[in-house]
Amino acid sequence: MTEHDEKTCRSCGRRIEWRKKWAANWDEVAYCSDACRKRKVTALDRELEGRIRGLLASRAATSTICPSDVARAVAPDDEAAWRDLMEPVRRAARRLVAAGEVDITQGGSVVDPSTAKGPIRIRRHRP
How would you list the strands of the sheet with 121-124, edge to edge? Predict the structure, then answer.
């Protein structure tokens, strides 16, 4: 693997930017930061990915979902709990983008999940 190959963080799904200090072990780099290395991917993260897949499968092929739809599906009766799930849902969506399963959109256009700020929508990947 060369230093110019793109990598995606296993935890947050953001693009890992190559750094000179990683030149000797770029093949082993799997996380973008110490925080992501400590967080890893949990059972809840896998559940959120499954909920994204499930919600998209239950809707028309051209439909999108909001991360809050997923968070509310996991914690429907607790507003504080589903609000706390919003960033984990966005991380799950970014991992699914990296796997080629979904796209993240803003204003109907596909955006780079590593740099997207503000409200997003999630849709099935369209080649």
Answer: 64-65, 121-124, 102-106, 109-110
**Is residue 55 packed enough to be buried (19+ CB in 10 Å), middle (13-18) or exposed (0-12)?**
middle
The CA distance from 23 to 3, in Å, is: 7
Domains plus CATH for the chain?
A: 7-39 (no CATH), 43-124 (1.10.10.10)
pLDDT digits (tens, 9 = 90+) for 40-51: 889 999 999 999
Distance (Å, whole) CA 47 – CA 50: 5
Q: For 12-81, where are the E strands, in sequence order?
A: 15-16, 64-65
Q: What is the pTM of this model?
A: 0.82
